[in-house]
Specification:
With about 625 residues, the protein is α/β, with parallel strands linked by helices. It is built from 15 helices and 19 strands. Strands 4, 5, 6, 7, 8 and 9 form a 6-stranded antiparallel beta sheet that branches. Strands 10-11-12-15-16-19 form a 6-stranded mixed beta sheet, with helices on both faces. Strands 3, 13, 14, 17 and 18 form a 5-stranded antiparallel beta sheet that branches. The radius of gyration is 27 Å and the shape is globular. It starts with 7 loop residues before the first helix and ends with a helix.
Length: about 625
C-alpha cells in the first residue's frame, strides 16, 4: 500500500464519518495507508468489565483491527501528552500555536457522540470546557510531571450531568413500558419507533434531558412490544448512553477528546483515532482490496443501527441491527458502528453473528453472515482484473481521442491506467489520450507513481522533504514498451484537482510529456503517513512530508498552473485558505534530462466531437489549435 495523501475532504468534512452514513456529529516505523489493514481480523477490545467504560484504550493488536465494545475513548494524562509530542516531532514543518477557543470547540464536538453529553444546550459541560480550554491546552503541551487538572474538573461535571441524564432516561423507560398495562400501539407504530433516528445530524438544538427522556420512551416502548428478548439491549442502552463513570474516568474521556481535537488543529490533514475507531481516518475505498462490510449506509437508532443501503445477505436494507458478534450496537459512536460493520478476514473468513429486528417479525432474529468461501483450485489463483476506468472515444480530425476519467487515485491506479491504455493500443484510429482529473481529490502516492510509469517509465519524480531536512526522491516504475504510451497526451484539471492527482498532472507537465489544460489546481503538496501512536492507544495520520514537482516547483499552497487555461467553474476551497496548512517548499530539479520531451498534438481543423461533456470538447479544440500543444 502506498503512502497516502489524504484528500481535501478529510479537512473540510473532518467532523463527518468517512462513509456515506447518517452521521450524528461531526516509535513504530511509519505505516502507509494499509497499516496492516490487509489483516482484516477483528478482536474484542480487552475490557474486563463493560461497565468500566473509562478504561484506557487497548494496546494495538498483532492480528488486526479491534472489535469495538462501545466504551468511550479514554486516555491517561501521560498517554495524551505522548501522542501530542509524537505529532509535533513528526510534522513536516513547524506551525503556529493553536487557538484555545477553536480547540475547546473541537473538544466539545469529539466529546459528545450523541448530542447529550456536552453539545446539548442544557449541558453544563460546554461553558466549563470553554472556560478551561486554554488551561487544558497548556496542560497537554506541558511537562510530564504536571497533572491534567482541567480534564479532571470537566470530568467531575460530566459525572454529575450523567446522573441527571440517566434519571431522565429512566423516567422515559417507565413511560414507554407502563407497569400493569398492555401497550396500546400498533405494529406500524412500534416499527416507526424502532427505526427512528433520535440523534440530530448537524447543530445540536435539543436539550439533553429531553433527548434522554425520548430515548427512554423509545427503548421502553420497544421492550414492551418485543418482550424480554430485548432486555440485554435495553441494559446496554442505559450503560452506553449514560456511562456510570467516576469523575477521574470521565477526565480520561475528556483527554481522548482533547487529543482528537488537537491533532487536526495542529495538522490540517492530521487525525488521531482510538483503536476501536481507527478506520475513521482511512479512506478504505481507495484500497486495492477493500474490506467487505455488513452495510454501506446506516442511521443510528435508540437500540442499534438501521441499515439504509448495501446490506450484506442475509441482512436486508431496512433491518435494525442490535448486535454484531455478540456486541450490542446501541449507544455506539458512528465511528465504532462503522468499524463493527467490517467482516473479519474479508472477503473470505469466518461467519459473523448478527442480531436484528425486521418488519412484521415479532422477535429479534439471529442471523449468520457467511463470507464467500475460498474457491478450490489447483495452482496459484490468476490475478484479478482491475476495475475499469470510465473510457470514451471522441472524434478528433481523422481519428479519435481516448478520454480516460480518473475520479480518484487508488493504490491500483497503475493497473487501471494500463488496462485503459491497452484499449487505446487495440484501436487503430486512436490519435491521443486525455486524462480527465477534474474533481479528483487524490489518494495514494503509490497509485500516482504507478500510473505515471506508463507515461514516464523509470523517471525521477517527486522530491519529498521531512522535518529534519532530509529529501528522498520517488521514481516511476519501469514499464515495458508494450505497456507504456508514447503518443500525444493531455491532462484536464480544475480547482478541485488535488493531492496525488496534482502529482500526476504536475509530473506530466514538468517533463513536458503532455499538456496540462484547465484551471489552477487545489495546491496540496504534502503527504500523510499512518503511525501507531507511541502510547499504544490508537492510530495517527500525520503530515510528514512536503513534496515538489520533478523540476522543483512547489505545489503546497500554490497548485499547478495549466499550460492552456480554460474558463471553468470557480472553486472557493484552496489549500492556501486552510488554517494551519504548511508553507510552500521548492525542491531540487531531479528530472532526467533524457526524458524531458514534447509530443505535439496534431491539428484538428475544427473536426472535434461531439462530446458527452462540452468541457472536454473545449479542451480538445484548444489542444488542436494552440501553439503550446501543437508545436
Amino acid at each position: 500500500m502506498g503512502r497516502r495523501l489524504a484528500t481535501r475532504a478529510w479537512y473540510f468534512a473532518a467532523a463527518t464519518a468517512i462513509f456515506a452514513i447518517a452521521a450524528q456529529r461531526p516509535a513504530e516505523p511509519p505505516k502507509t495507508a494499509a497499516r496492516g489493514i490487509a489483516l482484516w481480523s477483528l478482536r474484542t477490545l480487552d475490557v474486563a468489565d463493560e461497565e468500566d467504560l473509562g478504561a484506557e484504550c487497548g494496546a494495538p493488536s498483532e492480528g488486526g483491527l479491534v472489535l469495538p465494545t462501545g466504551a468511550p475513548a479514554a486516555l491517561s494524562c501521560e498517554a495524551a501528552r505522548t501522542i501530542i509530542a509524537q505529532v509535533r516531532t513528526n510534522l513536516a514543518a513547524p506551525v503556529a500555536d493553536l487557538e484555545a477557543a477553536k480547540f475547546a470547540d473541537g473538544v466539545l464536538d469529539w466529546l459528545d457522540p450523541h448530542g447529550l453529553w456536552s453539545l446539548a444546550p442544557d449541558a453544563p459541560v460546554a461553558p466549563l470546557v470553554r472556560r478551561e480550554g486554554e488551561r487544558l491546552l497548556l496542560e497537554l503541551e506541558s511537562a510530564p510531571w504536571r497533572p491534567c487538572a482541567a480534564a479532571d474538573v470537566i470530568g467531575a461535571s460530566l459525572a454529575t450531568w450523567m446522573k441527571t441524564l440517566r434519571a431522565s432516561f429512566d423516567e422515559g423507560l417507565r413511560e414507554g413500558r407502563p407497569e400493569g398495562s398492555a401497550p396500546h400501539r400498533s405494529p406500524a407504530e412500534v416499527w416507526r419507533t424502532v427505526t427512528a433516528a433520535p440523534f440530530e445530524d448537524g447543530p445540536i438544538t435539543r436539550n439533553g434531558r429531553e433527548l434522554a427522556r425520548e430515548l427512554g420512551r423509545e427503548v421502553g416502548g420497544a421492550r414492551a412490544a418485543y418482550g424480554a428478548a430485548l432486555d440485554p439491549f435495553v441494559t446496554a442502552a442505559g450503560q452506553r448512553l449514560f456511562p456510570d463513570l467516576t469523575a477521574e474516568a470521565w477526565g480520561r474521556v475528556v483527554l481522548a477528546a482533547a487529543v482528537r481535537a488537537y491533532v487536526p488543529q495542529l495538522d490540517a490533514h492530521g487525525a488521531w483515532a482510538p483503536l476501536d475507531e481507527e478506520i475513521s481516518i482511512y479512506d478504505l475505498d481507495l484500497e486495492t482490496n477493500p474490506p467487505l462490510r455488513l452495510w454501506s449506509e446506516m442511521t443510528r437508532t435508540a437500540l442499534g443501527i438501521r441499515i439504509d443501503r448495501g446490506a450484506l445477505a442475509p441482512l436486508l436494507d431496512g433491518d435494525v441491527v442490535l448486535s454484531v458478534r455478540g456486541v450490542p450496537l446501541t449507544g455506539m459512536s458512528v465511528e465504532q458502528a462503522e468499524q463493527t460493520a467490517l467482516i473479519e478476514g474479508a472477503p473470505h473468513g469466518p461467519p459473523a453473528s448478527v442480531t436484528i429486528l425486521r418488519p412484521h417479525v415479532g422477535e429479534p432474529l439471529e442471523l449468520v453472515v457467511t463470507p464467500l468461501p475460498v474457491p478450490a483450485r489447483e495452482g496459484p489463483a490468476p490475478p484479478a482484473e482491475p476495475p475499469t476506468l470510465p473510457f470514451d472515444a471522441v472524434r478528433y480530425a481523422e481519428g479519435r481521442v481516448a478520454i480516460v476519467t480518473i475520479a480518484d487515485v487508488p493504490d491500483d491506479l497503475g493497473d487501471r491506467v494500463g488496462a485503459a491504455l491497452a484499449r487505446v493500443r487495440a484501436e487503430h484510429d486512436m490519435r491521443a489520450v486525455l486524462l480527465d482529473l477534474r474533481a479528483n481529490g487524490g489518494g495514494s502516492t503509490d497509485g500516482a507513481m504507478a500510473a505515471l510509469g506508463h507515461f514516464l517509465p523509470g523517471a525521477a519524480l517527486f522530491p519529498m522533504r521531512r522535518r529534519d531536512g532530509g529529501v528522498e526522491v520517488e521514481r516511476a516504475p519501469e514499464v515495458s514498451a508494450e505497456e507504456s504510451y508514447s503518443g500525444p497526451l493531455a491532462v484536464l484539471v480544475d480547482g478541485d484537482t488535488a493531492s496525488a492527482a496534482e502529482m500526476i498532472a504536475g509530473a506530466i507537465g514538468s517533463y513536458r510529456r503532455g499538456v496540462v489544460i484547465g484551471d489552477r489546481t487545489y495546491g496540496k503538496g504534502c503527504a500523510q503517513e499512518y503511525l501507531d501512536d507511541e502510547a499504544r492507544a490508537g492510530v495517527l495520520r500525520v503530515t510528514t512530508l512536503l513534496f515538489s514537482l520533478p523540476d522543483g516547483a512547489p505545489v503546497q499552497k500554490v497548485g499547478i498552473s495549466p499550460q492552456i487555461t480554460l474558463s471553468l467553474p470557480a472553486t472557493t476551497e484552496r489549500e492556501a485558505r486552510v488554517a494551519q496548512a504548511l508553507e510552500p517548499w521548492r525542491g531540487p530539479d531531479v528530472r532526467d534530462p533524457g526524458l524531458v520531451r514534447e509530443v505535439p498534438w496534431a491539428l484538428h481543423g475544427g473536426r472535434v466531437g461531439p462530446c458527452r461533456d462540452e468541457t472536454v470538447c473545449r479542451a480538445l479544440r484548444a489542444l488542436g489549435t494552440s501553439v503550446a500543444a501543437a508545436r
